[in-house]
C-alpha cells in the first residue's frame, strides 16, 4: 500500500516536471551525465531525450567555458556549497546561443551520499536584451549629459542633495564632481536668497506645480556671481512617488550684459532723437516767435516815438496785439502737441462753425485755392472745443493749400458715422461727426503718411513751418475722444478726417460775453492778493486788477503770500500755478487750512492740475483783462451771495 502511494507520487512529480516548458529541468549523475530530460529542456536546447540522455552536460557550454573547466567547477560548487547559480551564454543543438540562468542543486540519499544533481535552466535572452538595451540607453544619455558643457545638468534627491554632476555644471559653477556630490544645492544661492528660503521654495514649487523656472544671481565656487536661468523638474517613479529633481542651469551673464548694453545704446539713441526733436522744435518755434517779437518790439518802439510827439499810436498797438495773439496761437499748437492743452468741451454745431469761418479761410488761403462745402441737411453736434476746432480746421486747410502749389480746390465735408464695437482700434463704439478736408494736390506715399502725424515732421522747406500742425490736430482729436485719419495716394490728392464724438445729453449754454465796463461797476471792489514768481507777469496782473478798481497786494512767492495772509486778510487770492518751492495748487491747499473758504483763482498754461483742486476757479494763459475781470466777477458774485445768505440768517428768528 505504501509502495503504491510512493509510486503514484513519483508519477505525479514526473508529470509535473514534464509539463513545465518555460524551464529546462533535468538530472545529472555525479559525473555530470544527463539521466533525465523534460519538455522545457527540449524546447530550450533543441535535443530530444534519446539524443541527450547519456551525454555529458558540458556540451551546453561555450568552448572557452569548457576549456576553462566551468562545468566541473559548477558541479564541485554545488556538491560542496549545497548550491550553484550563475548566468551566462549556453549553446543549443543547432549551435545558436542563449543567455541562461542556471541553478544546480545536489541530490543525496538519506545517508548523505551524492546521487547526482538537479539542474534548472531558464532562458533569459529576451530579458538580457531588454536590460542591455536599457543599459545602452542609459549610457547614451550619460554620454549626452556628460558632453554638454553650456548647461549645468545634474540631479538632486528629494531634499536637494546633489546626486549627479556633468562637465557643464563644473564649467559654470567651478566644482568638481567629487567636491559637490552629497552637498546641498543651496550653496549655489546668495546668502540673502538662502535666508529668504528661495532654494527650498524652488523645490516645493517644482514638486507642487510640476516645474520651477526663474532667473537670478548664483554663486560659483570662487565666490563670483553669474546670472543664471534655472529650470527644476520633479522625477517620479511609475507610482508617482518623488525620487528627486532634475536641475538645468544656464549661464546668461554674457547675454544679460549684451542686453544691458543694447538697452543702454537704445536709450542713448532715444535720447539723441529727443535732443534732435528738441532742436527741431526750438529752431522752428524760435523762427516763428522771432517774427512775432519783431512785430511786437518794432510796433511798441514806433508807438513810444509817436507818443513822445503826440502822434496817433493805435495802429502800432493793434499790430503788437495781433502779433501777441498769433504767439498765443503758436503756444496752443505746442500745448496740443504735448496733450497739455486745456479744452472747453461742449456741443459744437460743425456746419455753423465752418460757415462762420468762411471769411477767415478766404483771407488765410488766398485766391489760389477755392473752397467748397459738402454738408448734410442735419448734423448732430460734436463734442469738442470750438476755438481749437477752428484752429485745427484752419491748419488742415493751410496744409491742403500748400499741397497744391499751382492752385486747386479744397472740399470741407461733414457726415455722421456710427462705429461698431471693435470696428476701429482707435475709436470706441458710438456715433461720430467726421469732418474731412479734401484736396486734389500732390498726395502722399505710404511712407509719408506713416510719418505725417510725427511731431516736427514736415515736407515743407526750412523756415516754412514747425511740423506741429498735424501733430497738434491729432492731439486735439484724441483729447476730444476721437481720432485723425489720413487717406492719400501720390498724384490723387489727400483726405484728412477729424472724427469727433457726437454730443451726449444737453449742451452747456455759454452766456454771451459781458462788456468789461459793466463788470467794473456791477460789483464792489475787492482786496486781492496777487502771487507770481515772475515780476513782469505779477506787475501786469496787478495792473489789470487795479484798473478794474480793486486794491491789490503783491507777493513774489507762495511762502511770502502765506506770511502776508498770517498778518492780515483779503477777499481773494490770484496765484500762478507753476512756481518754484510751492505750486499754486499747493498754496491753495495751505490757504484752505489757514483761511478756510477764502477763494483762490489759479492761473495756468497747462491742462493738468491735481485732481483735488479741479473744482477751483482757474484762468488760462495768456489772458486779457476781460478774461481776468470775468473770473473776479464770478468770485465777487459768490461772495455777494454768501454775504446775503449770512445777513438773512442773522435776521431769522432763533429756534
Task: Give a short synopsis of this structure.
The protein is α/β, with parallel strands linked by helices. The chain contains 22 helices and 20 strands.
Quickly list its features:
single chain, about 650 residues, alpha/beta, five-stranded mixed beta sheet, five-stranded parallel beta sheet, 22 helices, 20 strands
Beta content comes to: 15-25%
Structural class: alpha/beta
- Number-wise, the strands total 20
Strand adjacency order, main sheet? 10-12-13-15-14
What's the helix count? 22
What are the low-pLDDT stretches, counting only 5+ consecutive residues below 50? 507-513, 644-655
Average pLDDT for all residues = 82
Q: How much helical structure, as a percent, in the residues?
A: 40-55%
Spatial shape: elongated
Rg measurement, Å:
50 Å
> Biggest sheet, in brief?
5 strands, mixed
Distance between the first and last residues' Cα: 134 Å
Protein architecture, described:
The chain is α/β, with parallel strands linked by helices and 655 residues long. The protein is built from 22 helices and 20 strands. It has a 5-stranded mixed sheet with strand order 10-12-13-15-14. β16, α19 and β17 form a beta-alpha-beta unit. α11 (253-308) runs antiparallel to α12 (314-337) and α15 (386-402) packs antiparallel against α17 (469-479). It starts with a helix and ends with a helix. The model is unreliable at 507-513 and 644-655 (pLDDT under 50).
